[in-house]
Amino acid sequence: MKWLEHHAPGLALVMPALATVVLLFILPLGASITGAFQTGSGLGLDNFRKAFELYGTDIAYTIGIVTLSVVLTALLAIAISGYLTLGEHPVAVAALRWLYRWPMFIPFIVVGQLARTFLAKNGLMNNTLVGLDILTPMQTTGLLDWRGIIIAFVWKQAPFVTLLLAGAMACVDRHALEAARNLGASRLRILIEIMLPQVVRTLLVGLVLSFVTMMSVLSVPLMIGSQSPTMITVDMAFRINTYRDYGVANALGLISLGITACVAWVYLKLSLQEHRAS
Predict the structure, then answer these.
(1) Is residue 254 classed as helix, strand or coil in its secondary structure?
(2) Most CB within 10 Å of its CB: which of 52, 147, 165, 211?
């Protein structure tokens, strides 16, 4: 009782956040786990067998799309962060610093609609190219497939990773950078050999979070690339809306959770190895 009375103010402050986590995350997760193993005859793995039989290609497709998007996001974030840190044109640096953050404030559902408007066969991109006489109307092609999904994912997540990475690069010792410049090192070499090794942990954090985010998005693949193969989130929505099959949908959700858990485990293992080495 004394312990409770002593910690009552702190518990009162924590309880709203704890209740939110339990109601919105822990309970739904528990219901999904139990629902994934429930079958007509009791508990079993029938939902997982059905999920892999029907959507095995979509699972591999999802992993491929998200992995490629993460790689391209990393490359773009490194390029932008490097220029923001090492760029020598103040106007260009200021303009880039102002522009690159905007996609962070746009919801994914809006990103999907923007991508449809921009990447369609008669969309803004092709109309602009036709207007500039770069392409003819017969030469235009739409990108509302896996390419459009990747473009939308990278455009949306690159600013988030860039924000983390640019902040980490700004903390790198400037004396080492100036010494490398005095010895004749190019900006690209300074970026790759001096800066990146010091901020790689921050980069990995941003990429893991981006991987998890992309795995959970429904609107973008539904609006841009809902044809077969498609992503797991679309399959989950299809099983629920069409067949009311929550068992297979929950199984797909656990498969998605397992994929993201593997990525997080790899990150944690690399972090522990780095910590032990230091």
Answers:
(1) helix
(2) 165
- Domain residue ranges of the chain, discontinuous segments joined by +: 1-43, 54-276
CATH 1.10.3720.10 describes domain 54-276: yes
- Yes or no: say if 62 and 231 are a contact pair by the CB < 8 Å rule: yes
Q: In one letter, which amino acid is 248?
A: V
CA-closest candidate to residue 258, choices 32, 73, 31, 24 = 32
Asked whether 61 and 265 are in contact (CB, 8 A), the reply is: no
Indicate the SS3 state at residue 38: strand
pLDDT tens for each residue of 203-231: 999 999 999 999 999 999 999 976 789 99
Q: Measure the CA–CA gap between 118 and 162, rounded to whole angstroms.
A: 23
Q: Provide the 8-state DSSP code for 42.
A: E
CA distance 241 to 16: 33
Q: Compute the half-sphere exposure of residue 230: CA atoms within 13 Å on the CB side of its CA.
A: 21
Provide the 8-state DSSP code for 132: T
For the segment 18-49, what is each residue's pLDDT rounded down to a tens digit? 889 889 888 988 988 899 998 878 888 999 99
Cβ pair 150, 68 in contact under 8 A: yes
**Contact present, 86 and 80 (Cβ < 8 Å):** no
Distance CA 191, CA 162 (A): 14
- Whether the CB-CB separation of 69 and 218 falls below 8 Å is answered with no
What is the pTM (predicted TM-score) of this model?
0.89
Q: 């998005």: which residue's tokens?
A: 217
Burial of 141 (0-12, 13-18, 19+ CB in 10 A): exposed
d(CA 123, CA 108): 19
